[in-house]
UniProtKB/TrEMBL annotation:
Domain YoaR-like putative peptidoglycan binding: residue ranges: 252-361
Organism: Micromonospora rifamycinica
UniProt cross-references to PANTHER family, sorted A to Z: EXPORTED PROTEIN (PTHR35788:SF1), EXPORTED PROTEIN-RELATED (PTHR35788)
Biased segments, Low complexity type: 30-46
Keyword presence, Repeat: no
Keywords (A to Z) from UniProt: Membrane, Transmembrane, Transmembrane helix
Lineage top rank: taxon: Bacteria
Signal sequence range: none
Protein name from the UniProt record: Vancomycin resistance protein YoaR, contains peptidoglycan-binding and VanW domains
Record carries keyword Membrane: yes
Disordered: annotated span: 22-46
Membrane-crossing residue ranges in chain numbering: 53-76
Length: 607
């Protein structure tokens, strides 16, 4: 670069300086009149000056010719001269030649590139195979990067540069492998919630998750793979979007005022008073995947809570349904109705709940058609029983535990699950409290049996889970008990607890599914009706292993103490084997480890 005054002019050509020479015996004129020196020949220019110009022109032409040759060398090929990848010179080559050269280099390094990669996740250390997570060098993308990278023209002549290879990875597979390494160090996010016990709002405070960020993990592993050194994958803490303080604010500003007094709904056909208990049932606080808590009115639950009260101003549409009669499904016709506009009612009701005065909502009546008509029902193909499962319960129908089981069965009976729909037991029954007909019965809390409202519903959950399991429906969410109970099949069972533990299955068939429940004085039965698509669904068990024996724990006697004989803990695998057209089309593994249930004694330890 040469500087001229205040302007910078870039000239990438080499600077050539040519010095004029004087021939011996010749003197250059020194005056304008030509007094010193020889006379000028015709044409006005001395012969010696013409010769000097010719000499300078020749030198310049030679230099320019050299520069053209050097420039052609510097700019030959697609990849700039002096460019290397992984120590391999690719400069001056075409894209095809550069790709071939790079692949040859990668083949030489195949042993190192395919060697297990050591990863450090928290306090855990493990090795993963690069091929299992899609770790590879993208040759074409790397050559493109080397080609498109800008090089200064002088660097093309004399410089060198190294281009980092483009590394690819399957982020989903890598995340799954790293989460296995993370293991028990991680924890799920505790979502914020506000739940009502009767008309008393209770906050569930958020807690951050300790987890992996898939995008960040992929970036770190891509950067560290070729170095041949252990890669430290960061474990990140992810906080829910709603804070503890915001939960408290929602309780104070909405949940408590909401149930402080009734709300009146008026319409062209009259008015209805909504008591605090019905408001508590309908007011829901739902958190999304990011943990943002949002209040809303579940109008369907509001209608259920109000029962016959709404009959004074609206007529509820009724879905067509099915009942089992004579061993076959029988259609129960639906009917149209006239209802308050649900969207407007939910919005307007939510708006007045924080107020102490002016708690009146004007509802608009609209024609309401049933969601499930007889025509739609006929298209679902619910025609035969595809599975059934029963469990036994002690105590007869008069015990609180048995009553809870039967109440849950009644809540679910007759439910139709559409194709592709996911059934949630918690979402279907809602909170199982006293107002919903549930009683106090033993539940497992903190590793021991204590009285709790809704105890025993886990037995219905297990029965429902097995009915869906043997129907071949997709398991979405379930969790076995921490202790093994002999009245349930090992591993293939499920507990439930509002609102943290749920049971969900998905209807992954092209047909509708009808849930039919029945009970006797000591059994509960759940059957699934649909169109049979599998030959059979069976369970194969692996042996029990890691047997652990219970310890004896003495508890303070009293009404909250429940004695238990204790049971062994163990680990076991169960395999769901599904056959169709005489062939196994699916084999799913279910595994669980049971803790030993202590031998709980209500009384002091003997001295």
């Amino acid at each position: 670069m040469t500087l001229y005054g205040d302007n910078q002019v870039s000239d990438d050509r080499p600077t050539v300086q040519v010095t004029a020479v004087s021939w011996p015996g010749e003197e250059e004129p020194t005056t304008a009149g030509g007094a010193a020196g020889s006379p000028r020949p015709a044409g006005g220019r001395p012969w010696w000056r013409r010769g000097r110009v010719l000499l300078a022109g020749g030198v310049t032409a030679a230099v320019l010719a050299g520069m053209v040759g050097t420039g052609a060398w510097a700019y030959a090929g697609d990849v700039p001269r002096g460019t290397s990848v992984l120590g391999t010179e690719l400069g001056g080559r075409s894209r095809t030649e550069a790709a071939k050269e790079l692949r040859a280099e990668l083949e030489k390094r195949a042993g190192a590139l395919n060697a297990p990669l050591t990863v450090l996740v928290g306090e855990n250390r493990a090795e993963i195979n690069p091929s299992d997570v899609g770790l590879a060098v993208d040759v074409d993308a790397t050559v493109a990067a080397a080609t498109s990278a800008q090089a200064h023209p002088v660097d093309r002549l004399f410089g060198s540069r190294s281009v980092e290879p483009v590394v690819t990875v399957d982020a989903a597979k890598l995340d799954a492998a790293l989460r296995t390494v993370l293991g028990s160090q991680g924890r799920d996010m505790t979502m914020p919630a506000i739940i009502f016990t009767g008309t008393t709002p209770k906050p569930v405070y958020p807690k951050p998750s300790l987890t992996l960020d898939a995008e960040q993990s992929a970036r770190v592993v891509r950067a560290g793979w070729l170095a041949g050194q252990p890669v430290t994958v960061p474990v990140v803490e992810k906080n829910p979007a709603t804070t503890r303080e915001e939960v408290d604010r929602m309780v104070a500003e909405l949940a408590k005022p909401a149930v402080a007094a009734p709300v009146t709904i008026t319409s062209s056909k009259g008015s209805v008073s909504v008591p605090p208990a019905a408001i508590a049932r309908a007011l829901r606080f739902s958190a999304d995947d990011e943990g943002k808590l949002t209040p809303k009115i579940d109008v369907k639950r509001l209608r259920t809570a109000l029962g016959s009260k709404l009959a004074a101003i609206e007529s509820t549409p009724k879905d067509a349904g099915l009942t089992i009669s004579g061993g076959k499904p029988k259609v129960v016709p639906g009917r149209a109705g006239q209802q308050l506009d649900s969207a407007a009612l939910g919005r307007d009701l939510l708006a007045v709940l924080p107020k102490a005065d002016g708690r009146t909502v004007t509802g608009e009546l609209k024609a309401a058609e049933p969601e499930l008509t007889e025509a739609k029902l006929a298209e679902l193909g619910i025609k035969e029983r595809v599975s059934t499962f029963s469990t036994k319960f002690p105590g007869g129908l008069s015990s609180p535990r048995s009553q809870n089981i039967i109440q849950a069965a009644k809540d679910v009976d007759g439910t139709i699950v559409q194709p592709g729909e996911t059934f949630s037991l918690n979402a279907h029954t809602g909170e199982r409290g006293y107002a919903q007909g549930y009683k106090d019965a033993p539940v497992i809390v903190g590793g021991k049996l204590v009285p709790g409202v809704g105890g025993g519903v886990s037995q219905f959950t297990t029965t429902l889970f097995n009915a869906s399991y043997y129907a071949g429906l997709q398991d979405v969410e379930h969790k076995p008990h921490s202790f093994y109970f002999s009245r349930y099949p090992a591993v293939i069972e499920s507990t439930i607890f509002w609102p943290d533990l749920d049971f969900k299955f998905r209807n992954n068939t092209p047909h509708g599914v009808l849930i039919d429940t029945a009970y006797t004085s000591d059994t509960i039965t759940v059957s699934m009706w649909s169109t049979k698509i599998y030959d059979s669904v069976k369970t194969e068990y692996g042996p029990r292993r890691n047997i652990t024996t219970p310890k004896t724990v003495h508890l303070e006697p009293g009404p909250t103490c429940i004695a238990a004989a204790g049971s062994n803990g163990f680990s076991q695998d169960a395999y769901r084997v599904i056959k169709k057209d005489g062939k196994v089309v699916k084999r799913e593994k279910f595994s669980w480890t049971y803790d030993p249930e202590p031998n709980f004694v209500c009384g002091p330890k003997p001295s």
